[in-house]
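Lab notebook page, bench 4
Experiment: in silico fold of construct C2
Operator: M.H.
Input chain length: 326 residues
Purpose: comparison with the prior construct
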Amino acid sequence: MSKLLDGIRQNNFVIVGRAGIDFFTDPGVTLEDSTRMTVDLGGSSANIGAGICKLGGKAALVTRVSDDSIGSYCTRRLQHYGVDTTYVRTVGGEFRNSLAVYESVVENHRNVIYRNGAADFEMSETDVEAVDYGRFGALITAGTVFAAEPSRSATFRSFELAKAAGLPIIFDVDYRPYSWPSPEVASDVLSRAAEQCDMIVGNDEEFGFMAGDYDKGLEKARSLSETTCEIVIYKMGHEGAITFTEGKEIKTGIYPVEALKPTGAGDSFMAGLVTSLAARHDLETAILRGSACASITVSKPGCAPAMATTDTLEQFLADHPGPTDH
């Protein structure tokens, strides 16, 4: 068994990244027409943690939250979903938790992110050095943590410590241009991070971005699988995914649903993928189960509250006997 699968099968993950707060409209309602919104947990890493816990795994988040009622709210919601908040620390001053405001619509969907003076970017090397990595089977992170200092250096330090403890590293590229000082910095940093990981998940645009040319994204994903990474998953939206591993290419489709909004799909895919591998499903089946989780999430309002549970996933698979052709 590989170190990667051995770690994942412990089904206990330390996640380095952000927790935020989401405001989202009622189904079908645009922001201009909205008179009320629902609030819940947000942030890619927090969503992945919530998704893992809802599917029966364990997860702890390493991050900073603002020392105010919003930070307290995010911490409380993490605990609500079962995420371990031992390594969630507060930061004072003018730093604030990230805020996402989005519409529960697909056509002309708009998603506004407030990331000025983000509290999670204040995560320090001291924060990641306080983690007992031996408690966990694998480390997961999403690319947003690398967009600013001191979070960037702290996350690279967490990679060092995780590797020293024998943990494999799982990386969701999750490129968000608005968080970065420039595309050039992002391309360099994300590529450096990717080269240290055991499993990478990204979409065609993200791999193309790292390659410096959209048309070379597939080549970049294949190259990573042949050099430094055991599993590379290249997602192509409605066209499914291509997974590179051990010299093989696995092509998988998606489960079509009537989507309510596009947000949360990547986070739920990751949660479904790793918990399915932990349950000893083969890789192709785990990818399809991750795809099913993504379909479940985009068909419901919100992100964390829309994540699949074990029961809703199994029911969905029973009702959808096969994905699209690929």
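Observations: Residues 3-319 form a domain with the UDP-N-acetylmuramoyl-L-alanine:D-glutamate ligase fold (CATH 3.40.1190.20). The two ends are 29 Å apart (CA to CA).
Next step: discuss at group meeting.
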